[in-house]
Specification:
The protein is α+β, with helices and mostly antiparallel strands. The chain has 16 helices and 35 strands.
Length: about 675
């Protein structure tokens, strides 16, 4: 990374739009821009949008000091199964590790449910005579002839990459890594991911999947970033690329190409981290983030100002055990398709129109109506003001497409009325689906949505937030100033972060406590070396945790450690307290097991400037009114320009707030006010 004095640009590549935020420390300004994505080659939209962004900011390519890049390339490749052709090398006797998995049915109540197809088919899985004991001692070691034999078999499979998993490899990652290097050399330089080098944690199936996922997306990620760097260099942009990570932090592009599994959820995580910073700045402790883009809607929870991190999530039906910001997909996005099934029942998604052909109203060849077409039909968005007027929308085409769906589900009457009824029904269905998923997600955490503030962002988030809040009983919404490009803002402000782990598997006693302390010191040294290699942080800190359980339990609880040298009594008390918080009881007579020790090395990035506005003595004036369809009827809504709103302004719904990157809908029964940073605060009146 470079110094804090240069221009920082945050970039979020989405399925529909590529978002940019430029931070200029010279005058404290932020410049925002959205460019339609190019899914066939995401770098084309990035380079084109970057050139336009620099022109808007009146800057030259060499003024840029760092590019902070969030991406969903790896995530999309996994979900769509369009990754590299990979192989897998495992310890003898473990060839079926991916097939057996955890021996669980995908759905306990659906006997017809099929399990996820493994990333590596069985004929591309090879065995090798390598194994370690649980203490890291070599119990089986391949000779040079066996290494040559396995390498020859790998070469014959015509692979792009491969992964290596040695049983108990987590206990001695260096031994497994050395074997991976020998195999790679013997196979003509084939990239081979060592599972323990990526994530040295116990449980061989999950560790195997981490290695396979890393190998599966690594060739794609490398080609993308190498091509992007070449394209940027041709245009005079020599700034380093920093890639945002799934844990809410970031890492340099070389680390991202080596460990792309850490970037799988980088885009959604950036927005959550930005929302948490916003909440802390306005004195709000507990928030639900609502990121509604073109393809899907994602939510996350932050309590006491900190986003929740998970040590396990599912990606495309496969478990991922890397630390990630706990983001859950809850429903449709702006590009989700509205359709009727064979029984004449209206449906929304999961198919998306994407950037091309996009919604019918884009006029790019799309024939199936989407959520965006519903917004347009109900007059929520201005057909001539989309993307600040750079893109004109065809409202007539949207209504016509929705009319066809309406007739399919049995609506009759005036074509315009049918289109409106269909659009309202589709939005109600999408909102109910989001609310149902959100209720489930919160219930699993024991949380009540009425105690939270909703923070919407993404191109469609502020448009849909009022509908979701009414459905959930949420009474307060905070809309960021640049909500449509908020994930890019989060990327621009992302700290450096990498998580380090080591599995111990010891029963808690005095000796285990000393080993835990020594392990924390070892991980801290590794973290400090990594931070020094990355460079550019204004300060560093470490976050420590340990997985613990009562002896005999199947899974651990993550216990945060405030002390780098905790005592045995402090460890026991911290675990008892956490167990009681989660499960409602403690057993102080039971033995306690120590599992995986965790340390996050964090390098704090330079502060992004925050522009504060003085209260305006000018009265608030609307641009006029526009009828919107709400609760079964047309009502007039005042229209405001977001840039004209100041800290002293207050207005009542129904109202529409238009800005270049999104549209905010203030429904009836809600009021709106603006704070000094330009954030829009919506509050529902008590009936």
């Amino acid at each position: 990374m470079t110094s804090a004095d240069g221009v920082r640009i945050g970039i979020d590549v989405g399925g529909t739009f590529t978002d940019f935020v430029l931070s200029d420390p010279q005058d404290g300004s932020l410049v925002f821009y959205k460019e339609p994505s190019t899914p066939d080659d995401p770098s084309r939209a990035l380079i084109s949008g970057l050139e336009t962004l620099l022109k808007r900011a009146q800057l030259k390519p060499d003024d840029v000091s760092v590019l902070m890049h969030g991406t969903t390339i790896g995530l999309n490749a996994i979900i769509q199964r369009k990754g590299a052709r990979i192989g897998l090398v495992v310890t003898q006797g473990y060839r079926d590790i991916l097939e057996i998995a955890r021996c669980r049915m995908p759905s306990s109540f659906d006997f017809h449910a099929s399990k996820e197809v493994p990333l590596v088919p069985r004929h591309r899985i090879l065995e090798i005579g390598a194994r370690l004991s649980s203490s890291g001692a070599v119990t089986m070691e391949p000779d040079e002839q066996e290494i040559e034999r396995v390498a020859h078999s790998l070469s014959a499979l015509d692979l792009d990459a491969a992964a290596l998993v040695v049983i108990n490899g987590y206990a001695a990652p260096d031994i497994e890594a050395a074997l991976a290097q020998k195999l790679s050399d013997a196979a003509g330089g084939l990239p081979i991911t060592s599972a323990a080098s990526i994530w040295p944690e116990i449980r061989e199936y999950e560790r195997t999947l981490v290695a396979c996922l890393n190998a599966y997306i690594q060739p794609l990620i490398q080609r993308y970033f190498e091509g992007l760097q070449a394209g940027l260099t041709e245009r005079g942009v020599k700034a380093p690329i920093i890639v945002t990570a799934s844990n809410g932090g970031s890492l340099n592009v070389a680390s991202a190409m080596e460990r792309p599994a850490e970037t799988i959820l980088s885009g959604p995580a950036s927005g959550v981290m930005a929302a948490a910073r916003l909440a802390r700045s306005v004195g709000v402790a507990d928030i639900i983030t609502f990121d509604m883009g073109g393809t899907s809607s994602d939510i996350a929870v932050a309590t006491a100002g900190q986003p929740e991190l998970a040590t396990r999530t599912d990606i495309g039906g496969l478990p991922l055990v890397l630390p990630v910001v706990d983001v859950s997909a809850i429903g449709a996005g702006g590009g989700s398709i509205v359709w009727a099934d064979q029984h004449g029942v209206i449906k929304v998604g999961p198919q998306s129109a994407g950037a091309h052909p996009g919604p019918v109203s884009y006029g790019l060849g799309g024939t199936e109506p989407t959520i965006t077409d519903c917004y347009l039909t109900l007059n929520y968005i201005n057909p001539t003001g989309f993307l600040g007027g750079r893109m004109k929308l065809d409202a007539d085409a949207a209504r016509e497409a929705l009319t066809g769906i309406g007739h399919s589900i049995g609506y009759t009457g005036d074509r315009s009325e049918v289109a409106v009824k269909t659009a309202e029904g589709a939005l109600s269905l999408a909102t109910a689906g989001m609310a149902s998923s959100l209720y489930k997600t919160l219930a699993q955490r024991g949380l009540d949505p009425r105690n939270f503030v909703l923070v919407p962002f993404g191109g469609a988030g502020p448009t849909h937030a009022g509908l979701l809040a009414n459905e959930m009983g949420i009474s307060r919404i905070i809309v960021p100033a640049a909500a449509g490009t908020f994930c890019a803002l989060g990327a621009a402000a992302a700290d450096l972060r990498r998580d380090f782990v080591k599995s111990l598997r010891l029963q808690l006693d005095a000796v285990a406590t000393l080993k835990l302390t020594a392990t924390l010191e070892t991980l801290a040294r590794a973290g400090a070396l990594w931070l020094d290699a990355e460079g550019g942080a204004r300060a560093t800190r470490f976050e420590r945790a340990v997985d613990m359980r009562y002896a005999g339990q199947a899974y651990e609880l993550r216990v945060v450690l405030d002390d780098a040298t905790p005592t045995q009594a402090a460890l026991a008390d911290a675990f008892h307290t956490e167990h009681e918080r989660i499960y409602g009881f403690r057993d102080e007579d039971a033995a306690i097991d120590i599992g995986t020790v965790r340390l996050a090395a964090i390098g704090l990035s330079p502060y992004l400037p925050e522009t504060l506005f003085e209260p305006s003595d000018k009265p608030l004036e609307s641009l006029g009114t526009r009828p919107i369809f709400e609760n079964g009827r047309w009502i007039d809504a005042a229209v405001y320009r977001r840039s004209a709103l100041g800290p002293s302004h207050h207005f009542e719904g129904p109202a529409i707030v238009e800005q270049d990157d999104t549209t905010v809908i203030v429904l009836s029964g809600w009021s709106a006010s603006v704070d000094a940073a330009g954030n829009l605060h919506l509050e529902r009146k008590v009936a």
